[in-house]
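Methods — Computational structure assignment.
A single polypeptide chain was analysed. Its primary sequence is given first, followed by the predicted tertiary structure written as structure tokens.
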Amino acid sequence: MLTATTVWRADPALVAALAQRLGEPLDSYVNGTQTWLTPDGPRGTTLEWRLHPVASYRPPAGVSHYELWDHVVAQLPGPIRLGEESREIDALWDGLECFPAYGDELEPAPLAAAVTDTLGIAPHASGLVDHQRIGDEWERAKGATSLVEALLAALHR
């Protein structure tokens, strides 16, 4: 099954736009992923936004996954001091993906227009991807590959 998706590469301006436009993440995962759900897709579709961690993500010592977002946003544009270390945005997250939540079907162009309106930044790429295949490859690699690079490669085929 192919899913309409949009992808941005991570940088301080993107994280600042997420903080300003979407606020606190709905959930924060141990693997570094930050997620939001918003009701502003085409025809009122709920959208899922996922800020994906870098390949082989290693959590910063002394900062829980629940605290990570607040620590980062408070120190934008960076570098970000996290416990005993300092990291740039692109050493934490590879990029942002947005797609229709709950398996709703959308076309890529209306999705790209809607997310650009919501975030105020156009995605680097949009189109249809096979989330199952990309997720399976990431799982097989035990997180050692970039989800964002896999998404971008699928979108540029």
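Note: The chain has a mean pLDDT of 95.
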